[in-house]
Amino acid sequence: MVFGVLKDIKNGEYRVIVTPSEAASIAADGHEVLIQKGAGEKAGFEDEEYEKAGAVLVETAEELYARCDFLTKVKEFEPCEFDLLREGQIVFTCIHPAAHPEEVQALLDKKVIAFTAEDSHRYGSPNCEAAGKQGALMGLYAMLSINGGKGKFVNGLGGAPGMKVLILGGGVVGQAALSVLHALGAWVTVMDINIGTLRSLSRQYHEQVNTMISTRENIAALLPETDMVLNCVKWPKDRTDHLIDREMVRTMGKGSVIVDISNDVGVIETFHETTHEDPCYIEEGVVHYCVSNIPGAIANSTSVAYAASVLPHFRSILNLGVAEACVRDGFLRRSLTAYKGYLTHEETSALQGRPWIRPEDILGIAGRNLDMAPPATVSRSENFISAEEVTV
């Protein structure tokens, strides 16, 4: 196959999904590797390194779209890219399909084979770890007096107490944030809906962090004495309520900080997305840091970790084909989003009201001994397309 790596064009995005190391591995498998010029430059990888790895440099995205059987990049497809997609082309990127109906329609119209990267990680995305760790540091930056924050130092000074921090969600993102803030000496409380997760974190940190079940009531009780809140919750996209509403934000002290790492609309009523160029705003007296691609700020480390995590998916698809790769890895199979004009992503079906077909049905592998994976989200859909209706 001809495998291509696009330069990401989203505002503030500096990562690259393939480093020279992965490019060398794919080339060694016998595939032609094309890299758009400058794709890795802002992450610390020069064009010459890719050439030494056996890749061919390509000047424009248009040429990559025209030549490649398999295309990949970090973030969603922008509208200017929709018409460049070709029927039967394999694409792998963070599509976030349930939240991007126009992008989904383009993938269906162009009859591509699309995988959404965020659902493909067996052990959690390195981007989530990066977002949690760097998000914690960005929160400390937002706390500085020069940014409108309270001006508290994370672990205090002689005679001055340290910060009280509330982390909502004890998954990969929350645990990553906790590792940084605990090491720096903050007074941390973690909330989650899973008592097992809270017990595990309490033991891991030798009972030196507080844990509470996540409810609106518990959150409301803590907010008036909390200096910084980090939202690490994956919020169901069909919910219309808020975990923290505007009235609750008002109870926080002036100059407190909210870092919305998850960037899921609905968790915090006062949230709106920001960029690295203009990362903070103040609402109800509280500094909000709501950058959607925090990992882009540490592009080198995130690119190295992310590329290593997705290389097995790339090699499996390239060497075995889409169907066989999906037989062997349930996490890759659940990330299949569109297949030659048919929606294959359950959450998108549920939230957008589109009919869908299970990946194993459209790929003709339902009778095989499949590697299994849990559903990517809690959203379920029975709005099925039957296998008999499919023509590919």
Question: What features would you describe in this structure?
Answer:
With 392 residues, this protein is of the alpha/beta class. It folds into two domains: 2-124 and 298-389, Rossmann fold (3-Layer(aba) Sandwich), CATH 3.40.50.720; 127-289, NAD(P)-binding Rossmann-like Domain (Rossmann fold, 3-Layer(aba) Sandwich). The protein contains 15 helices and 15 strands. Strands 3-2-1-4-5-6-14-15 form an eight-stranded mixed beta sheet, sandwiched between helices. Helix 1 links the parallel strand 1 (2-5) and strand 2. Helix 11 packs across helix 12 (322-328). The radius of gyration is 22 Å and the shape is globular. The mean pLDDT is 96.
Defining key terms:
15% strand, Rossmann fold, 392 residues, alpha/beta, globular, 15 helices, 7-stranded mixed β-sheet, 2 domains
Gist?
It contains 15 helices and 15 strands.
- How far is it from the N-terminal to the C-terminal residue, by CA? 20 Å
Order of helices and strands: EHEHEHEHEHEHEHEHEHEHEEEHHHEEHH
Helical segment count: 15
Please write the CATH class name of the largest domain: Alpha Beta
C-alpha-based Rg, rounded: 22 Å
- The overall pLDDT, averaged over residues, is 96
List the helices and strands and how they pair.
Blueprint: E1 2-5, H1 20-28, E2 32-36, H2 47-52, E3 56-58, H3 61-67, E4 70-72, H4 79-82, E5 90-93, H5 101-109, E6 113-116, H6 126-142, E7 164-168, H7 172-183, E8 187-192, H8 195-204, E9 210-213, H9 216-222, E10 228-231, H10 246-250, E11 257-260, E12 280-283, E13 286-289, H11 299-320, H12 322-328, H13 330-334, E14 336-339, E15 342-343, H14 346-352, H15 359-362
Parallel strand pairs: 1-2, 1-4, 2-3, 4-5, 5-6, 7-8, 7-10, 8-9, 10-11, 11-13
Antiparallel strand pairs: 6-14, 12-13, 14-15
Helix pairs in contact: 6-7, 11-12
